[in-house]
Amino acid sequence: MQTRAERRAQQQREQTEAFDQFSQEIFENRAGSGDDDRPPRRPLLRSFRFWVPISILLILIAVVVIGGLMGKHVYDRAMAAKSSLEQAMPLATKAADDVMAGDNAAAKETVAQISALTADARKQTDDDIWKSLEWVPVAGPNLYAVRTAASVTDDLVRDALTPATDLSLAALKPADGAIDLAGIKSMQGVVSQASTAVSKAATQLDTIQDDELISQVSGALDKLTGTVDELEPMLKPAAEILGVLPAALGDEKPRNYLVLIQNNAESRGTGGNPAALVMIKVDKGRISIEQQASSGDFDNGRKTPVTKLNPETVGLYGDKIGRWMQDSTLSPDFTETAGIMRAWWAEEFGTPIDAVVSFDPVALGYLLKATGPVTVPNDPVDVGFGYKVRVMDEPLTLTDKNAVPFLLNGIYSEYPVPERQDAVFAASAQAVFSGLTSGKAEPKALLAALTQATDEGRLMYQPATESEAELVGESRLAGKLPTTNESSTMVGAYVNDITEGKLDYYMQLDLAASSTQCTAPDAPVFGVTATLTNTLSADQAAGLARYIAPARFFKKGDVATNLVLYGPVGAKTATVTVDGKPAKATLKPHLGRPAVLVQVQNTPGQKHTISATFEGAAGAYGPLEVRHTPMVRPTALTVDAAGCGD
What's this model's pTM, rounded to 2 decimal places? Predict the structure, then answer.
């Protein structure tokens, strides 16, 4: 397939050849060619064959002369349109900032200025003289592209940006423990209108043939098209999500959400040991904590799983995933975890659960950055039999800086007794929840915190209804591994601690992934490399609290891990190495993928590198993507998909 540059070069060659042939036809005298079998030709100037092309040439000359006059007219209008659009561009950024800041009055004033400028650009390019020249070779397609771009821009300002000035993001922000459902519903109408406008713009832009566009026009068009292409897949789902949000917030009937707080200091596939649980009730937008529990409240170590399990999951992780509540998060597929946790909750408490949510203390830190510090009171806690115990001597202030070190590490030294730890966890969750629902967080900061948590796999949601499940799909929010390689070719690395302790606070996970999907599409090879480093020193290990490092099954400070590496859908495992040497591994199919389980033990200061390669079948593959267990420490990641472009 020719590139745009090659097509243009070919068109220029064809135009040159046509002109050469035309010139030869005019100036060559073919009379008396020496062919005695044909009558001698009349001189070219007297030939009718001459007057036809000359008439055409004269018409073209006339058009060029008139076009020169028209060209000045068109040029002046083009420059005026360009000036208007250039003035509008920075104002568009300001308007967006005004909306995000909640200053709708300023946004409306700014958009009014933008609207006047884009309307002028449209007017300049939408006259009869401009349109009459759109049939002219080379110039015509560029004129049409400019006119269409000006029209599209003006439509977007009128039908998308102007309505957006009525958006109140404050509707997304809880205030006094409730969310404004009426505000959510009004947002849906605005976003739906914007989505329709962007889809219409995309259709109009598709009518432009870009083969003959000059660089100045194609460059500007690429920016506009890129913006529309970026907005279109965002706005439609946003409108759909806003459509189901009122029901999710208890508009039709109350809902119960079971929230698992996964402890990353004891890693599991989707995050960590889900030792703390909170049941949140939402009714008509009002949010409240109805119940809290810990892992000790369940019948752990039971002989049979609490619910029916996927045989492939049992083959890879064992049936302990359903016999110990703390192991319900072993699988990287959150839909499996949610099903198991629903069964645990139903057996122990019987409270109906509509949906399941997962969060971790690192993500709580992100929320605290949005809400600001919260105070955990030292109120007495009911411990049963009519007794109340003051768990903490003094109130605790949690910030985005100290939440993770305290909740995932310091608490075990300061409060050695598990029951006191559970009480502090519960009080901390209540304090963060109160800060979140008080309305202190600005919508922009809150959205940034939730987005970061979702992107890192720290926030997951197992929906309550089929319509919600369709919206969530196989996104990161769903916590579900993609079932095909179409949208992305996902490989993964998942960490499951088997030490018994909270030592993953000190573990560093670094990942590298590679593929030949673009250089060898008929027999692609995919590689996943995980490096696990125990950052503890021997001296640090010796002083660890017992609950962090019980040293019952391994030496104090040693970290034992079941690391599971996943290949793409439909691939097969080729090789597995540890520190460059062939390694013993468990090879099993899971979730339509090959999975490799390798046991690794890291002494203090020790590092191990585990690699697996997977052979894929011939076919098309989406962009290479890597997912992994969200750890306490940030995971360094490198991706090499040679030949696939940026």
Answer: 0.77
